Amino acid sequence: MQPFASRAALSAAAALAAFSMLMVPAAHAAGGAFPDKPLRLVVPFSPGGGTDLIARAVGIGMAQELGQPVVVDNKPGGGTIIGTDNVAKAAPDGYTLVIATFAHAVNPSLQPKLPYDTDKAFAPVVMLGRSPNVLVVRTESPYKTVQDVIQAARAQPGKISYASQGPGTSAHLAGELFKSLTRTDLTHIPYKGAGPAITDLLGGQVDLMFATASAVGNLLESGKLRALGVTTAQRSTSADLARVPTIAESGVPGYVAESWYGLFVPAGTPAPVIARLNAAATHAVKSDAFRKRAESEGLTIAPGTPEDFARYVRAEEGRWSKVVKDAHISLN
To answer: Domain limits at 61?
Structure first.
């Protein structure tokens, strides 16, 4: 049985509903008929992970700008394919979006039989931001440095495991690239989202994780996890990660793997609608509330035009296609 809501909670809910209703006419005046109903933002991961947290923060800001609720819909599984396919088949009217990640650009190389054509099924809206992945272990782990992991992996091939939020995600490919460049054998354990992966990492069921900074920021700050290295070419500018060395400078030359977040809608969505969504998302990520959260989690805010985002994703597709091929990475 659900507990009864307090009188204060009911009053707050009523006030919020009234505020939302008041905002709708303003949205109509500014942008015409769109939007005149709630929007759905599909997150192709389970609740609680970094992508989910970013989506919810962006959704709040977009709702304030658009005057309509932005409802987060978690559809995990298939290395983001289940949720992404749901959006590919949605009406191209701007009311259904997907928050895409690194996996969006990599899945075409890993999954030759996708249920959609990545380059034709979607229209880019905006890049939200980029961030490093962080090689983390629980605080009780014997591994204190990247070199500790490499030495242990070479001494015990296949014995050390690393978690990811799903096949083909940045955490997975960051691990595969690490294996390839260090010539080690780590065992990949995929999960349906960062939340359950981190839970098992904390519980000792897995040894490592190349987690997104947004997913583990609070756990690093609280001391429940320890960061061994960041996956970007330069050290993070985040205060929490600034002292953490890059994996490249820790003895793995050439190692670079970047996470990113962006919004897509189904192909065929009208350009004026995409422009409205781009403006709302840009406003959301530039807000003080979002900036504060982003900076604490190592996220570099990087909005731009839909065309800017399209160019970035195409470059990522080309770069990781080569990595996947050269490292003989397969999900089969």
So the answer is: 9-131+259-326
